[in-house]
Amino acid sequence: MASHIVGYPRMGPKRELKFALESFWDGKSSAEDLKKVAADLRASIWKQMADAGIKYIPSNTFSYYDQVLDATATLGAVPPRYGWTGGEIGFDTYFSMARGNATVPAMEMTKWFDTNYHFIVPELGPEVKFTYASHKAVEEYKEAKALGVETVPVLIGPVSYLLLSKPAKGVEKTFSLLSLLPKVLAVYKEVIADLKAAGATWIQFDEPTLVLDLDAHKLQAFTDAYAELAPVLSGLNVLIETYFADIPAETYKTLTSLNGVTAYGFDLVRGTQTIDLIKGGFPSGKYLFAGVVDGRNIWANDLAGSLSTLHALEGIVGKGDKLVVSTSCSLLHTAVDLVNETKLDDEIKSWLAFAAQKVVEVNALAHALAGHKNEAFFFANTAAQASRKSSPRVTNEAVQKAAAALKGSDHRRATNVSARLDAQQKKLNLPILPTTTIGSFPQTPELRRVRREFKAGKISEEEYVTSIKEEIRKVVELQEELDIDVLVHGEPERNDMVEYFGEQLSGFAFTVNGWVQSYGSRCVKPPIIYGDVSRPKPMTVFWSSAAQSMTKRPMKGMLTGPVTILNWSFVRNDQPRSETTYQIALAIKDEVEDLEKAGINVIQIDEAALREGLPLRKSEQAHYLDWAVHAFRITNVGVQDTTQIHTHMCYSNFNDIIHSIIDMDADVITIENSRSDEKLLSVFREGVKYGAGIGPGVYDIHSPRIPPTEEIADRINKMLAVLEKNILWVNPDCGLKTRKYTEVKPALTNMVAAAKLIRNELAK
């Protein structure tokens, strides 16, 4: 009855770690207080899995920020700017790398493969002196052992660590990161020796880059790495875990030939074709960790279907403990526990499984595979699957017909972007280098209290509207005082941009505690798309109109785009994702046209997550980009030339999809740039022509650091070296909701001052 969990959510069922982190960062609690909360959470997680009967329980999957940053700390790969002088890496250095500090910026943050989770990108070069500087892996293993729980320590694999890194500033972009492999392996050997000495019998290396399209040189690095580690790994059972996609055939051959490896973990939910490779040949005597329980979504497992798959695999691997039932990936990407959901109705609740329930599913499948099937549990699961398929609340024929009718057109605006920008400029009369922000302003405790009390029925709708309008007025007055050109209303009515829209669309359900970590202490509560989507009534027109009435300057209407709503939700898995996206696009189209009728001349449709959803395998990317970009164009195809359509994207590598971004045909795009060392600008240096308005972010909003005017002006000048002055906008990297007003005011003051400084220089 072998069962395994790849990893588990860290934040706690009610975001206990989030609040402990923020209290520590604000100086309200000590490092010891934070460590105590973390230790209690770890103990609870290990006990839960042990009590559920899980055999292979992971340790070292807990993190104060993210697991790649933990690996950077373990390797002592701290960039020199943080002033680390050696020894065990503490919170000061660790959190400075993650968040920056008063004097130096944070390291780059980007998306973890095709998820909404983020990681801190290692900055490496030939001069990095790797040293064993964080003993977290062995400490957590010992901690679990002291509680009576035997665990499998988890490490980011050495090759994936290097492939996920980037050359540090000043290092040639052509520098081979894999050339650092011998130095990195020297530290890994020390970590492994420590774990062996502590009594570990298994070790799990997460090597998720194995699902990517890797050339022969990169595949050879895996062979070399594990051959080098084989002597120190001797005596340990070694699991190589992969996830998020199919394994390419050539990679499968390399993986299953690695020296000293005992077991292989595969995602068999998103990697169904991998089953064919396993059927074609699996190494004798090795363990297969079969990821049949979805770690990325919240739908209850089809236990009968999964058991059928496991029986087929058993015919290849053999009966006994060599076939291990597992999750498809870490449960980090799903909500924690369905028990905490008190407002979901019973029907929808019966269709779902959060992390805690998935642990139970894994164990139930392992028992069934061993001949000890819980008939009642399987029967209830079959009934829930049937209920979901037949429920009338899932299907709306009118919506399906409207979406089907979209197939005959590519939905492009009739006038080209250059002519539209001319028409818009005549109407808006903006200066060169217009300034704006991305949408949200700080979410103060008072604002959160107002929203909370309104939802709880403690204040009336009239009191709520009055409070929100007052907050909008403050934000508008602040922007006018700062002399920002195109204003936003600050989104005080929204806790989360996707949740806000989902609450007003049909086909969505919502949780009370369905939080998922996005990065650091930032958690999101993805809505659940269970049925066909439509817009019963306008969603933002009231607030945008109220905000526009408070100023003569242009006020942006703020919407979330269909692809981002899709990618930041738990999406139904009973129809293609493209079909759901087209339904959402039609709903947003209705909202865009209502905003235009209400006199809103600038409308931003955020597609922050468009790049995030890009399939990991190149052969599947063109199809995704085709329907994703088409869905965006659907939303605004019906507006007048004088209505300016903005979009926003953040924290991904956009260079490889720049032509699809151009094909979106937005009038203006604002895009993350500063935290990634202005990587985006290299596209334009290489000759890509961009004719629409563009605002590469001039400062990083995920750090409390306030950038000086000169630094921002320098960034603007770098942009002007590759972009025409008449299309360039000046704006932060992203929305300001996570910052404080004491940070936002001086940062925006400096941003506007920098724009004016460059305008004056251009005028001369």
TrEMBL record:
L-methionine binds at residues 438-440, 491, 606. Pfam families: Meth_synt_1, Meth_synt_2. It is an enzyme of class 2 (transferase). Its EC number is 2.1.1.14. Its cofactor is Zn(2+). NCBIfam families: met_syn_B12ind, PRK05222.1. L-homocysteine binds at residues 438-440, 606. The active site is at 702 (proton donor). Pathway: Amino-acid biosynthesis; L-methionine biosynthesis via de novo pathway; L-methionine from L-homocysteine (MetE route): step 1/1. 5-methyltetrahydropteroyltri-L-glutamate binds at residues 18, 116, 522-523, 568. This is 5-methyltetrahydropteroyltriglutamate--homocysteine S-methyltransferase. Residues 3-315 form the Cobalamin-independent methionine synthase MetE N-terminal domain. GO terms for molecular function: 5-methyltetrahydropteroyltriglutamate-homocysteine S-methyltransferase activity; methionine synthase activity; zinc ion binding. One of its GO terms (biological process) is methylation. InterPro entries: Cbl-indep_Met_Synth_N, Cobalamin-indep_Met_synthase, Met_Synth_C/arc, UROD/MetE-like_sf. It catalyses: 5-methyltetrahydropteroyltri-L-glutamate + L-homocysteine = tetrahydropteroyltri-L-glutamate + L-methionine. Belongs to the vitamin-B12 independent methionine synthase family. Binds 2 Zn(2+) ions per subunit. Residues 433-756 form the Cobalamin-independent methionine synthase MetE C-terminal/archaeal domain. Keywords: Amino-acid biosynthesis, Metal-binding, Methionine biosynthesis, Methyltransferase, Transferase, Zinc.
